[in-house]
UniProtKB/TrEMBL annotation, chains A, B, C, D:
Needed cofactors: FAD
Name of the molecule in the record: Acyl-CoA dehydrogenase
GO cellular component, one term: cytoplasm
Taxonomic lineage: Eukaryota, Fungi, Dikarya, Basidiomycota, Agaricomycotina
InterPro entries, sorted: Acyl-CoA_dehydrogenase (IPR050741), Acyl-CoA_Oxase/DH_mid-dom (IPR006091), Acyl-CoA_Oxase/DH_mid-dom_sf (IPR046373), AcylCo_DH-like_C (IPR036250), AcylCo_DH/oxidase_C (IPR009075), AcylCoA_DH/ox_N_sf (IPR037069), AcylCoA_DH/oxidase_NM_dom_sf (IPR009100)
Entry's family note: Belongs to the acyl-CoA dehydrogenase family.
Organism of origin: Filobasidium floriforme
């Protein structure tokens, strides 16, 4: 009946209660790494957040050519602290992975989410590189791994994943239309994609692209193939950065890209073999969704922390009272507390489920988290923004940019509606079991009452 | 990486993922008891639910005089199965308690919540007896324990707790006005209470009453005392049963009671000593709130199960489709699934917190659960009722009566608003820690940027 | 720029702003009638509400045999004031109707909704009699009108409408299975219905029943016929009253009724002719839905009024403050005010639309009101109940019974979900017009920009 | 009973039902102007929307120096059509006003809201110029009017209103700290403001600034004065544009401005006299809030229109179905339809109230609209964005920028919370009237029942 679990600094982030529930499952390595990460967040990432933005030029051309120097400095520090590639679990990636379970990493992803534009990248744990490294580790051949996986693991280059297409309802991946053709020993890629994250980044070395290679295959899930395209290929044309609300997220960006008859060498470009595109992207999504969710929870927690400080600020009195003494503010704080805590437990449970049943066995838990967490986080962010007034939605606070980023998660990797449909249907699969149970209960009831003896309830 | 945890039948109630998270904390005794309880629910309680209601007479007088025989039969069966007084943890009540933690019992309370009017009473785990037994076990003298605690623990008698008062805003307990006076060696109790659960029950033997004994005490928390009043005392007058929505919950009831100069012997009646009323009721509330929450989650889970069966029922086609194929039904199911799962984890975390830090150390977790769970459960119930149409709100299905019961939990033991206020304030206590952290970050930032060197973000 | 419109007492019910918007459309007869009705509500109906309930016996048999005498007294008073059958607009029913538009009556229905169990019945404006009188006035033959319509118009008898069936998804009326057969010159009705409102009432004289008369008709909308069945026919068996939450709504009730080979004379029983059942019930629903909505708004307004008084009650201080000084109460009041006002305007607009385009031309407005108003009113009621605590859900206040009644409106006459679907589809019918407009705009844009000259927005 | 009101093109914007309710209050001039405006929107504004954005340079300096030529062209066209200064009602501004009521203009503001960045400015009806012209028309001296009001009315110059301050909780205007001092016959203004809309615009000629002129005045509402500051005064320093989410809204902008000892001539600068600042800003807010609300409703209506087209687009099939055939889309459309319609009626009612009782008599209606409409519009926008997926939040669709603009309205001119508080309190002022009515009813009830004769309801 001791409470000394609470001495770990993570309790100031996730609370003592959640920690005491999961703490026995954390190795001492994980606990130390977590402490290390928290220190890195507080002493390096958060202090550098403002400088990072200040080092991005305003000029519309230059802002895509310069990497803020403070970021490369942070990466060096993270690597020397051993805070590197934490997302890659040795459980699933014995060769390159780190000795952390998904549950252990989930808490770390939440910590990173407090500085969502800084900390994940600084620790080489940022999307889309994370999912790309997983794909390359599992499906790429040794040549490809040497050329792309190792420098990615080392943080020397970055990468993008080219899936979403212009003018296409690509939440149904079978609609993808970018062509991958084999002609005279060459592979030729032709199409227009957009929202290709990282394609604007001068460090980007590789596009991992999924396209339609076998349109006539009767099995629609075998029509697609994944290829590697060097970012500097002359037929790859970055057309423009897309904006999220007004943000272009330079220098990484989410770009429209024209693949204008990109000619590739088949052996060099093919990932996992012809027709395996679908299989590969499905494996890519599970843990990544949990990471997004945990980072979102960290972001929401930070927003709540900011709100707590703001409404207690003696300089912010209105009508003779602190903001926290007004109307509904305290109630809003309580709701945010409850919603964040509940969402965190939901995601931790899903992360643990991945540990014991792999992503496939955790699909339901992942799906629930996927459609629940971003909506929750947006509500918390919105309340925090409201407490900050005009300051809350401008460049002087990180809230609006965080909100914009979170908003994309309600359709990225499949819109909420699709995930809700899938979860609803998964629940409906319990009906035969329930119906059988109900029948047993009714039989017992009839035996107890004597058929027809007891009247309908009046 | 095995999933064989899933073989326990509880996984069909709380899901495999929640179970795998908490299963290592369950003793083998707890696991067996849980399996036993599930069997008791399915083979005894649920089949008896209809008969229980059918055995309550319609006559407005008779319905307060008869205990449905099936209930006493169920109690015998539960006792012989060892499913008895499970709520009383040996951890806190070494003498009479059962070897279960709060976490272990929490899951059992959820199971009981599937038949909320049957299973808790059948296992001697029903409010208000549970809290009353805790009070008597902790504060009553040996004579009192012999007379009331032992028969309560044995299920021979029932009890009520007399706190809420007519015409008084008793969510602030310092408003209580029922007088407890000492005169000529006697204790005299005078007042009008209502919503005294169980006061209509012919088995009720004892009112545990809190009243104002020392109105002038400068410390408002020392003005109140708890006394025991035999239910058959001639000056105790049960005026009428109160209705919850239209339900009178006979034969137990929630009654208006007139204490009309009830004369008592001081030694026999006094619990814990003069002026300790407040202290006692506060200790009474913590775990009880968690039990309410877990039962509510069980009730919500049953409502969702009922909805799943209903919308899949081939007899319920409208416009050529099953209900589940219409509009928003599947989305509603997904939301209910997410909300129940999140709420369960919140309450399990609070229960575990009580195990390691007692009720006092878990106040925040308990408070969050208290204002979150009933609202969640009401939403799930409402969706289920809507899927059942008119049948959903009538006596042929348990949903409406469950809804009514759950609705009371939004103000019983303190209204949601009070709990939200307390949780909001508890969160605000984190501000000094956060402010100190923010200051450290700002100092680092200035050191990094060089004061004034980096301009405000344009 | 005068505000003297505000002198009408209705402004204390619907506010000055809504009144000044619609006042020019009110005849002076309507204004006087409205003033008369408000006086009747305040001086007769509301003072009698408690007595009405007290005059209903508790005995489960007797409560279906006695009409509270105060109700017959109120009916006499209403009739002598000319407050009688106000629902029947001369616009649509020149023979029996009153000189009021639907808009004018809508405001009166709101006033009646302040005492929903008293005032509509006292003024002969209560469902299901209202819709039944409309059906009889439009489709019954002179004999039938003499026998049933005239005594209904006079308030001597009451009536019920038998549609909903046991075990059938009757929100899709084509599922109805009660048989209406012609044999040897007789009509024979066989089936089991439930939720037949008014079937328990000793004054009930007539069941207007819809059943399946021509199951093989290729047009499913021509398979049904409406017949009149005398309530005292020996083959009509009232099985039991259904409960709404715990309320049986005696003496009127909503009963399960067995039609056990009810033999009828074809000429006497047939309404409007064979196969016209569908057509008749559809015409019956439009204005009735608006009446339900306006009464619901009146009920919500009363709940808000009650809440306003309660939270200002100096006897209800908690923690040293009036309830209105606590947390979110004032915000809840503001939300309720906004929601009621918006809903009222929506329904008034629909009522006015019926006046100018009949029910058929107002289907969209009626549908929007139908799925919007009950949910709104339930929210307002729920907030009011919460402000009253335990007292709010018991028999000492009307709130819980009002809540139960409002809850039925979310599926009665078609569940919310069906109406939302229909409105969504009606909106989608605007797409061709919108697409044509969009095309015109794009053509203009291209002319303005010069095709291809202006680049995609960067 | 005719429906030929529906021939006006406005029925395709606000629906036939709302139009038939208000149409009798529209003059034939107003109807023609409305038709003219709709034509201008469809044939000029919407086709120019894309070009307007394309003509704003990307260069961070240049974008503040260039006015998109298409805007000046649109202004010429609007003026020649007589669509100019429609916001200024002759009712309140006989000299410069247009012959339109607030109700009539409200519908026009909704039409303008379909192109919120184009149409209001093109018709000289854009904030903050509108409120500024009202202030100058009412309070400026003839010299000032000649210099600023006339060119503003003519659309030659633009203006800004300098109120919000950096680091100050300026939703409580008594917190404003910018100093206005009189020294040696000069007026000196010193302070830092931000969110000064239009201050970045090269056409901006004048800052109307409110500052603290008499800090010791015992009446805090008399401490403030309004002065005119030429935009090109050398001591006015535009520090930076603030971003709303990621948008800088160039070339108008919302800027941080340093007033660095701005020396002014007292006669030229003073508006309305010393100490009248508060009085002036309060008069400025009423109708302006209604204009914001109506434009927001127009924006929401456009978003719904866009959603309707999108979900019907045959190119957007997923999983073999149009988007509108999936899950909750149709329900979302129905909800949006209901919410927009209800909000519109609320605002039209408030606008009409201003016509008959001026802004002061309409404060409650304005307040309800103020806190209800932006939240409603944001919900509608959010659903539309979700239907568009990634495209919905980027520069290829106007939705995200509209969302950002609407989000500011939840705190601009006072945060929602303040307005809800005021409306809640206004409602509570009805309590004495309600209490008096309740007393009358209770007295009647006692007379009816005979005191004490009828028992409490059992």
């Amino acid at each position: 009946m001791s409470t000394n679990t609470s001495s770990h600094p993570v309790t100031t982030y996730i609370g003592e209660s959640a920690w005491s529930l999961i703490e026995p499952r954390f190795s001492s390595f994980a606990k130390k790494t977590l402490e290390n990460l928290i220190d890195f967040l507080e002493t390096e990432c958060l202090p550098a957040e403002h400088l990072y933005h200040a080092q991005i030029p305003h000029d519309p051309v230059q802002r895509w050519k310069v990497i803020p120097p403070v970021m490369e400095e942070l990466k060096r520090k993270a690597k020397s602290r051993g805070l590197w590639n934490l997302f890659l679990s040795k459980l699933h990636y014995p060769e390159h992975g780190v000795d952390l379970t998904n549950l252990e990493y989930a808490v770390m992803a939440e910590i990173m989410g407090h500085a969502p534009l800084i900390c994940p990248q600084a620790t080489n744990c940022a999307a889309p590189d994370t999912g790309n490294m997983e794909v390359l580790a599992r499906y790429a051949n040794p040549e490809q791994q040497k050329k792309y996986l190792l420098p990615l693991l080392d943080g020397q280059i970055r990468s993008s994943f080219a899936m979403t297409e212009f003018g296409v309802a690509s939440s149904d991946a079978t609609n993808l239309a970018t062509k991958i053709e084999r002609k005279n020993g060459e592979v030729i890629v032709t199409g227009r994609k957009w929202w290709i994250s990282g394609a604007g980044d001068p460090r980007n070395a590789i596009h991992i692209l999924i396209g339609l290679s076998d349109p006539e295959n009767p099995n629609p899930h075998k029509r697609f193939t994944i290829v590697l395209i060097p970012a500097d290929h002359p037929s790859v044309k970055v057309v423009r950065p897309m904006q999220v609300f007004g943000y272009d997220d330079a220098p990484e960006g989410h770009c429209e890209v024209l693949y204008d008859h990109v000619r590739l060498n088949e052996k060099e470009c093919l990932v996992g073999g012809w027709g395996r595109g679908f299989e590969i992207i499905q494996g890519r999504l599970g843990p990544g969704r949990i990471h997004h969710c945990m980072r979102s929870i960290g972001t929401a927690e930070r927003a709540l922390n900011m709100m707590l400080e703001r409404v207690s600020d003696p300089k912010r009195k209105t009508f003779g009272k602190l903001l926290k003494e007004h109307g509904t503010i305290v109630g809003d704080i309580a709701k945010s507390r409850s919603e964040i805590d509940a969402a965190r437990l939901l995601v931790l449970t899903a992360a643990h489920r991945i540990d014991i049943a792999r992503a496939k066995g955790a699909m339901k838990d992942i799906g629930i988290a996927k459609f629940t967490v971003p909506t929750m986080a947006l509500k918390v962010l919105d309340r925090a923004m409201q407490a900050f007034g005009a300051e809350g939605i401008c460049q002087d606070q990180p809230l609006a940019q965080m909100f914009a980023g979170l908003r994309t998660l309600r359709y990225a990797d499949g819109p909420d509606e699709v995930h809700m449909l899938q979860i609803g249907r998964a629940e409906l699969k319990r009906v035969p079991m329930l119906a059988e149970r109900s029948k047993r209960i009714r039989d017992k009831q009839e035996a107890l009452e004597g058929k027809g003896k007891v009247q309908a309830k009046l």
